[in-house]
Amino acid sequence: MSQQQSDTAMEKGFIVFFRLCMGWTFLWAGINHFGDDNFVLGFLTHVKTFHAVYAPFTQPAVIPILTFLVEYGHLAIGLSLISGLLVRVSAPFAIMLMLLYWTAHMDFPFIENVNNYLVDYHIVYAGVLVYLIVKRAGHVFGLDGWVANLGSVQHSPALRWMVA
C-alpha cells in the first residue's frame, strides 16, 4: 500500500471517529435531558457574562418551546452525525449550539472555571464540526454518499446541496 493510500485510509478513519463521537455527544445530551423540563431554565439562570442576552429566554412562555427545540435538536443532530445523513445541514446547527453554550458558560475571560481561559470543549467541538463539514464527513461511511447518488436528489439543486 502506498503512503498516499495509507494517509487516505487513516484520514477516513479519523473522519468517521470524529463524526461518531460528536454524534454520540449530541445524541446522549438529547437522551439524558429528554423529559426534563427544568434543565434549560437551570442552565440559563446561571449565565453570567451575557445575562442580558439570555434572560429573555427564561420567560415562562418561552421555556417550553426552547426546551422542546433543545431536546429534539440534540437528538436530530446526533442521529444525523451518527448516520452520516444531512451532515451539511446538521453540523452548522451543532456549531451554533456549541457557540451559544460557550457564551452562556462564560464568566469572561474564563469559561465555567479558572482552568479554561477563553477556550473550552465547546470551542474544540465547534472546530471538529467545521472539520466534518469541510471533509464532507457524511460521504465517508455515511448515508450522504448513498443519498447523493439517487436520481431525485441529483435532479434537485436544493437536495443535492444538502448532501453535497
Question: How would you describe this protein?
Answer:
The chain has 164 residues and is mainly alpha-helical. It has one domain. It is built from nine helices and three strands; from the N terminus they run αααααβββαααα. A three-stranded antiparallel β-sheet has the order 1-2-3. A hairpin with a 1-residue loop joins strand 2 (110-111) and strand 3 (113-117). Helix 1 packs antiparallel against helix 4 (63-83) and helix 1 crosses helix 6. It is globular and about 50 Å long. The mean pLDDT is 91.
Describe the structure concisely.
The protein has helices spanning 3-33, 39-44, 51-54, 63-83, 87-105, 121-134, 143-148, 151-154, 157-162; strands at residues 106-107, 110-111, 113-117. It has 164 residues and is mainly α.
